[in-house]
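Sorry to interrupt, but I need a hand with the structure work. Please put the record directly below this note.
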Amino acid sequence: MTSFVVEDGTGLDTATSLVSVTFADDYFSLRGNTAWAALGDSVKQTHLVLASDYIEYRFSTMLVSLRLVDEQALSFPRDLVVQFPDRVKKAVCEYAILSVAGTLLSEPVLIDGQMVKRKRERFIQVEEEVHYEINRNGKFIPHPIADALMAPYLRKGGRAIR
C-alpha cells in the first residue's frame, strides 16, 4: 500500500503530496478555518493527495520550466524555481478544502457522448438548444483563490514547451 509521502523539494519519486498535514493545519488555523481542524489526519492526508493530484491533472503541461528530476512523482519542484514555493503549497491547501466540500472537480454533462457547454430548454414553446464543449479543459471549475496562487508558475498561453 502506498503511504503518504510529502515532497521535500528534492524531486522524490515516491511523493504523493506537495504539502504536509502540519503545513495545512497551520495554514487553515491562521485563517480561522475550523472545518479543516475537525478532520482526522488520515482524511486530511487523503484530501492533500487529491489536491496534489488535481494540480498534476490541471497544470502539469502548463508549468514554467522543467521538473527538477526526471523521475519525480509530482510536477514540483521545478528547475527554474529556486525554492519550493509557498504559493503552490497554499494552492494545495485551497484545493484540499475544496475537495473536502466535494467541489474540486465537476462531472461533465454528456449528451450523445459529447460534453455539453450549455443547454437551454423552453417550456412555453417546445424548444431546446444545446452547445457542445470544444475545449476539453472545460471540465475544470474555476477556483479563483487557488488558481491565482498557481498563476505565477504557468506559461503564458497555457502550454509548456518541452
